[in-house]
């Protein structure tokens, strides 16, 4: 921080604007207390004044804005988001703490693994030195403080099994891969489950309903590795449509001028871009009147996004390489989508069946509204909420269930890394993966909660 | 008192009746749900399946069908030969049976002959294969190492004799002649200088003079020169006497003097503790020079059995007393020091089993040789046994030395000699049988003398018997074609044995030599007689050989007329023997067959038994985890609904946190860093679930119960909080809890399966572990998943069906609990 302009903006202008705004908006005395705390935390982190920050200055940069927004009364959605953010940060601290205490309570420590090495067993002084370096004999609160400080400084140590890579480097490489799978599969399966559930509930009792319910239950209860083996057998072995496993085909990448990771990050961004386009489409459609116009708007945005993405990939020369990754991605995504859509579909069907019995549906019918309008606008809109609830509840298991998918398809994401770190007794990497899986779940929860608040007005007010 | 008791009883009765009534009503409702009934039936089926496992385990042979340590290496049908053997094992199975007899046929020829036979095999490889195929004949070399009995037995004998020499039970006369003074292994330079201090150099020169032209002689001269470097005249004198010739009497006296002193020196420096018996020449030397007393040899031969008898004496004190009174009493202390702590019952039991089997095997062997012995008669038992052992190690030391050994044994004890003679005779019979076999195969009676002249023909002909049997048995069917293509398409050039293929195509009838492989061969009397006469010729008193078993005493077997089924049966038997004795290995995993309904896994264990044995533990785990979940969840849910306020807030926040936990990731880490068994897992899953989402649902249900008027009524009539919770709220929440219990079973079983699939659980056997075994053996990672379907479909299917059965049951129960679902 040597640039005077930056110092001026971040140390003077930004807090000043914030303070003025807060004083202007704030009413009750506790508002000013929050403002003062927020300022103290912010400047404590900025000046690196160690008595004013918890664990690490970086954590203060997260805490200060959140506490700042308690400096005045908010209403509606923004209040909900603020409260939710505060809760999530609190949960993050609790989660990291819990992870620490679980590892503290487990037998053995960082150095136990090295006792298997006969060289170290023969040299007790080396082992003692190692124990000293890892701080094994420290009291628990010192260890806890170090753990939290290092976590919020994003210093997770050096992996044992992938030495000399740093844990945060490994996670930065692997997290996008898990995120991609998770986003693609959860969004697709949610949409598929929503749409199919709505349709089969509307035509309940028919053959389609029974078939779909049966298929849904089969997918819902099947043992995941078993199902994936069947998929591998069917698509990769018998039909030879997709590769058996892995992330890329190495032979195709021999003379690639860029790393697979670079291509993959761009793919992830493309996916996010498509998602954003779709959401914009929905928002725009919300302002239109007729069903036809709405549909055109959504599809227009999605197809438009697809065309832009296609042009981008055709232009940047990475297209063929990206296709190789997509080819490897297809089978895991198919597996996850088919597995997860089943649950969503069953929930959607059940709630739809409840909703259909409501009086307002009968009223809508009596008004003579078209069948599809009743289904989509009246029934499905209400039934969406329980589906959303079950989706949010299932988030944690979806993310951690990624371990199975990644193992079966040798997709080197967070889950497979966690498993490999565990089997190799690589404590730093295992802790890192576990914590970041939790962070991913927390962030997904936050996003889902905000979406939920958009959908359900009862939460906002 | 009486009144209250009556009242209590009546209340219990009313409750019971109510329960029955409710149960009937609910059962009637439940029966209408097809899903629920289906789930129930599947669960009952699994229950029966699991309950059968202890019965099945008792019925089948544990060494073959045990779910964890079992291994089926039997060859049970011709399909095993045609389909499940690698080319290497097929070739081995064809050649090793005959090769064993070939090795037996030169068992008495000594190790030089054996080495020449090994060279014969090596050169035969070039002639048969026409190319460099280093592994193609390796199994012949292995068979020689394995079936050349004397060398193998001498290795065991070596360990016991070395131990006894170490412990000082066997006194080795290191210096047997003056020549040994120059042997550096027995007599060091230091010893030599001390010898010269005690013996006049002229005497030594005299004593050493008969051993000119030996290494030892020149070493003595060298050492003498080294010691008397400053005294050349002395050296010259010494050399003159040593090189000169002297009268026999003079030399003998000198020898005796030197020997006496030298022995004393060796005893003092306790050198010469090494006895080597690992080759036949070393054994010959020991017998010739008597450096080890015969009683020492007997002790060493009997030593291996002493510890077994000591173990047995833990049950029968008499055995130990008898042993202490026998000639083998010196060995007890040494054998005891070798035994681990057998007072510990955990060690004693397997040790007893082992001792019993080994003793009973030996008794059986003795019985076959015509001895009627009991272990209780310890001395006689051990004497006969040591005689038998000595016979095994001394087959190939040549008739003269054998005779010398036999006579010396007779001096110690008649029983030892009896054992020796009987065993030697039985080996002679074996050799005679093998020679008859080889003679029939090669068409010459001069075996083993003609082996070297015939060269690689001997090796090539060894394939004939089994090949001809196979060609006859499989003739005209696709089986023969399969065997031929197996050899022709071998992935390894080393095993592409075209000579065998040629024979398979050309040979029509089983050759005569096959009779020996199927136990119908007749020993040629001439060959046997020659063996015995050669041995007896050197004996002073051959009376012991008068009543030994002769080939004519053995009942001649009726020869079966060849037919295809018989030939096939015998062929399978031959391969089966090879496989059971681990000479060849069947390629596991085997597909489903009559003997393994769901095939075997890569390690050779039965998949169906594994599936069966895992079932009960899945039930236990699922139900236990679900019970803990529901108990904890119900109590917390109702309590937070009833009390509200802080209790509610705390538990609901905990529930939120639990729902955020990435459970599987957590379980993986937990089980990776600590040993996880079923009960720990059930507890962890139960607590994770109990504090988690289930409380939210149960709390919502409890809230609807809490506002009912009868709760207020109970409170007004003085019911405590606990009373109300346990007697009014929980019974009303119970149906819902029960419903969630069913869903939790699914979750628990799924988690266990995933964890053991990753190999993180410490369980003996489970469905997940079955897939893990296959996965880690690499059968699922490659393109042949479909070909090995029986490895993963049964276990994966069982998990799926088991989980879905509980899910269906839950759905059925849901219709009872939630009346709104019923109306559809």
TrEMBL record, chain A:
Membrane topology of this protein: Multi-pass membrane protein
UniProt xrefs under Pfam families: BPD_transp_1, BPD_transp_1_N
Domain ABC transmembrane type-1: 175-452
TM region(s), chain numbering: 6-24, 31-53, 59-76, 88-106, 179-196, 217-242, 262-285, 297-315, 321-342, 384-409, 429-455
Cell location: Cell membrane
Swiss-Prot/TrEMBL keywords: Cell membrane, Membrane, Transmembrane, Transmembrane helix, Transport
Alphabetical list of CDD domains matching this protein: TM_PBP2
Protein name, UniProt field: ABC transporter permease
From TrEMBL, chain B:
Occurrences of domain ABC transmembrane type-1 (ranges): 615-810
UniProt-listed InterPro entries: BP-dependent_transpt_permease (IPR050366), MetI-like (IPR000515), MetI-like_sf (IPR035906)
SUPFAM superfamilies: MetI-like
Record field: transmembrane: 38-57, 619-642, 654-673, 679-698, 738-760, 789-810
Keywords: Cell membrane, Membrane, Transmembrane, Transmembrane helix, Transport
Listed GO CC annotations: plasma membrane
Location of the protein in the cell: Cell membrane
Recorded topology in the membrane: Multi-pass membrane protein
GO biological process entries: transmembrane transport
Domain of life: Bacteria
Entry-linked PANTHER family: D,D-DIPEPTIDE TRANSPORT SYSTEM PERMEASE PROTEIN DDPC-RELATED, OLIGOPEPTIDE TRANSPORT SYSTEM PERMEASE PROTEIN APPC
Similarity comment text for this entry: Belongs to the binding-protein-dependent transport system permease family.
Protein name (Swiss-Prot/TrEMBL): ABC transporter permease
Organism, as annotated: Fervidobacterium thailandense
């Amino acid at each position: 921080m040597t640039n005077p302009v930056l110092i001026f903006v971040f140390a003077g202008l930004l807090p000043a604007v914030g303070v003025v705004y807060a004083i202007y908006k704030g009413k009750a005395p506790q508002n000013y207390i929050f403002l003062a705390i927020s300022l103290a935390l912010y400047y404590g982190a900025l000046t690196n004044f160690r008595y004013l920050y918890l664990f690490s200055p970086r954590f203060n940069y997260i805490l200060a804005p959140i506490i700042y927004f308690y400096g005045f009364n908010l209403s509606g959605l923004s209040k909900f988001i603020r409260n939710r953010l505060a809760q999530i940060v609190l949960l993050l601290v609790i989660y990291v703490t819990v992870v620490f205490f679980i590892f503290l309570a487990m037998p053995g420590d960082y150095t136990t693994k090295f006792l298997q090495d006969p060289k170290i067993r023969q040299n007790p002084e080396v082992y003692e030195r190692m124990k000293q370096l890892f701080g094994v004999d420290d009291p628990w609160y010192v260890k806890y403080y170090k753990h939290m400080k290092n976590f919020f400084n994003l210093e997770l140590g050096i992996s044992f099994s992938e030495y000399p890579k740093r844990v945060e480097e490994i996670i930065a490489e692997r997290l996008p891969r898990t995120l991609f799978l998770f986003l693609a599969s959860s969004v697709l399966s949610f949409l598929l489950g929503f749409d199919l559930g709505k349709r089969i509930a509307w035509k309940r009792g028919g053959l389609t309903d029974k078939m779909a319910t049966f298929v849904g239950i089969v997918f819902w209860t099947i043992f995941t590795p078993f199902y994936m083996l069947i998929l591998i057998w069917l698509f990769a072995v018998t039909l030879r449509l997709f590769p058996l496993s892995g992330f890329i085909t190495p032979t195709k990448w021999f003379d690639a001028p860029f790393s697979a990771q670079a291509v993959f990050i761009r793919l992830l961004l493309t996916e996010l871009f498509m998602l954003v386009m779709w959401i914009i489409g929905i928002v725009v459609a919300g302002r239109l009147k007729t069903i036809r116009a709405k549909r055109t708007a959504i599809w227009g945005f999605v197809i438009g996004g697809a065309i832009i993405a296609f042009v981008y990939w055709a232009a940047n020369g990475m297209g063929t390489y990206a296709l190789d990754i997509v080819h490897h991605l297809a089978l895991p995504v198919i597996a996850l989508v088919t597995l997860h859509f089943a649950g969503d579909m069953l929930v959607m069907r059940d709630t739809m069946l409840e909703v259909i019995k409501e009086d307002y549906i009968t009223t809508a019918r009596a008004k003579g509204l078209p069948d599809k309008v009743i289904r989509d606008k009246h029934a499905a809109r209400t039934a969406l909420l329980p589906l959303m609830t079950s989706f949010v509840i299932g988030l944690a298991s979806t993310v951690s269930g990624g371990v199975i998918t990644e193992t079966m398809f040798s997709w080197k994401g967070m889950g497979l890394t966690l498993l490999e770190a565990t089997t190799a007794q690589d404590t730093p990497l295992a802790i890192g993966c576990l914590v970041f899986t939790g962070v991913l779940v927390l962030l997904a929860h936050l996003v889902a909660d905000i979406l939920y608040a958009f959908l359900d007005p009862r939460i906002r007010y | 008192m009486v009144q209250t008791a009556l009242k209590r009883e009546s209340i219990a009765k009313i409750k019971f009746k109510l329960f029955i009534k409710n149960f009937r009503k609910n059962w009637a409702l439940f029966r209408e749900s097809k899903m629920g009934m289906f789930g129930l039936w599947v669960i009952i089926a699994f229950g029966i399946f699991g309950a059968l496992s202890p019965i099945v385990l008792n019925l089948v042979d544990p060494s073959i069908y045990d779910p964890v340590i079992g291994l089926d290496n039997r060859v049970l049908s011709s399909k095993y030969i045609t389909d499940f053997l690698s080319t290497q094992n097929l070739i081995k199975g064809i050649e090793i049976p005959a090769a064993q007899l070939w090795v037996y046929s030169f068992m008495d020829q000594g190790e030089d002959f054996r080495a020449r036979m090994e060279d014969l095999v090596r050169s035969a490889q070039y002639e048969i294969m026409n190319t460099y195929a280093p592994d193609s004949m390796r199994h012949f070399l292995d068979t020689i190492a394995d079936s050349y009995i004397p060398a193998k037995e001498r290795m065991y004998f070596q360990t016991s004799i070395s131990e006894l020499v170490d412990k000082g039970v066997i006194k080795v006369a290191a210096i047997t002649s003056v020549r040994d003074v120059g042997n550096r292994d027995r007599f060091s330079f230091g010893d030599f200088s001390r010898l010269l201090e005690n013996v006049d150099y002229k005497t030594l020169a005299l004593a050493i003079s008969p051993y000119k032209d030996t290494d030892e002689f020149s070493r003595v001269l060298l050492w003498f020169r080294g010691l008397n470097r400053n005294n050349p005249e002395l050296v010259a004198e010494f050399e003159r006497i040593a090189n000169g010739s002297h009268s026999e009497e003079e030399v003998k006296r000198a020898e005796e003097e030197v020997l006496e002193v030298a022995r004393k020196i060796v005893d003092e420096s306790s050198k010469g503790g090494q006895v080597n018996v690992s080759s036949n020449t070393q054994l010959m030397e020991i017998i010739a020079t008597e450096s080890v007393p015969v009683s020492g040899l007997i002790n060493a031969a009997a030593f291996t059995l002493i510890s077994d008898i000591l173990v047995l004496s833990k049950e029968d004190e008499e055995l130990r007393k008898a042993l202490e009174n026998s000639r083998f009493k010196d060995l007890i202390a040494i054998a005891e020091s070798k035994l681990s702590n057998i007072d510990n019952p955990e060690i004693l039991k397997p040790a007893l089993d082992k001792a019993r089997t080994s003793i009973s095997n030996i008794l059986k062997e003795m019985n076959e040789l015509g001895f009627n012995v009991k272990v209780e008669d310890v001395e006689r038992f051990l004497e006969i046994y040591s005689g038998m052992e000595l016979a095994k190690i001394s087959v190939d030391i040549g008739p003269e030395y054998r005779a010398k050994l036999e006579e010396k044994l007779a001096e110690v004890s008649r029983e030892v000699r009896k054992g020796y003679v009987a065993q030697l005779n039985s080996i002679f019979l074996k050799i005679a049988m093998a020679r008859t076999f080889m003679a029939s195969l090669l068409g010459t009676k001069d075996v083993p003398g003609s082996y070297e002249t015939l060269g690689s023909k001997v090796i090539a002909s060894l394939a004939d018997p089994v090949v001809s049997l196979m060609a006859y048995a499989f003739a005209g069917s696709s089986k023969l074609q399969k065997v031929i293509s197996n050899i022709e398409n071998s992935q390894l050039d080393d095993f592409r044995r075209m000579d065998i293929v040629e024979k398979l195509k050309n040979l029509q009838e089983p050759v005569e030599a096959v009779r020996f492989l199927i136990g119908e061969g007749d020993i040629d009397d001439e060959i046997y007689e020659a063996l015995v006469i050669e041995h007896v010729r050197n004996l002073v008193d051959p009376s012991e050989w008068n009543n030994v078993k002769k080939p004519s005493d053995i009942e001649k077997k009726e020869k079966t007329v060849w037919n295809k089924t018989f030939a096939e049966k015998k062929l399978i038997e031959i391969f089966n023997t090879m496989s059971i004795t681990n000479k060849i290995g069947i390629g596991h995993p085997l597909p489903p067959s009559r003997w393994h309904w769901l095939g075997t896994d890569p390690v050779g264990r039965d998949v169906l038994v594994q599936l069966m044995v895992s079932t009960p533990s899945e039930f236990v785990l699922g139900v236990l985890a679900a019970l803990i979940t529901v108990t904890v969840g119900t109590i917390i849910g109702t309590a937070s609904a009833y009390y509200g306020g802080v209790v509610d807030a705390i538990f609901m926040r905990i529930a939120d946190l639990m729902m955020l936990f990435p459970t599987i990731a957590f379980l993986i880490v937990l089980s990776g860093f600590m040993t996880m068994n079923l009960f720990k897992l059930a507890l962890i899953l139960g607590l994770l679930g109990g504090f988690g989402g289930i409380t939210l649902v149960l709390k919502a249900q409890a809230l609807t119960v809490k506002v009912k008027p009868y709760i207020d009524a109970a409170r007004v009539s003085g019911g405590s909080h606990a009373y109300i919770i346990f007697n009014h709220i929980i019974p009303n929440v119970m149906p819902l809890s029960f419903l969630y219990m069913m869903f939790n079973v699914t979750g628990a079983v799924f988690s266990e399966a995933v964890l053991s699939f990753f190999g993180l659980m410490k369980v003996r056997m489970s469905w997940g572990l079955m897939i893990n075994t296959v996965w880690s053996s690499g059968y699922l990672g490659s393109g042949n998943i479909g070909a090995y379907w029986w490895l993963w479909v049964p276990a994966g299917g069982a998990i799926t069906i088991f989980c879905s059965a509980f899910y269906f049951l839950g759905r059925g129960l849901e219709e009872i609990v939630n009346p709104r679902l019923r109306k559809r």
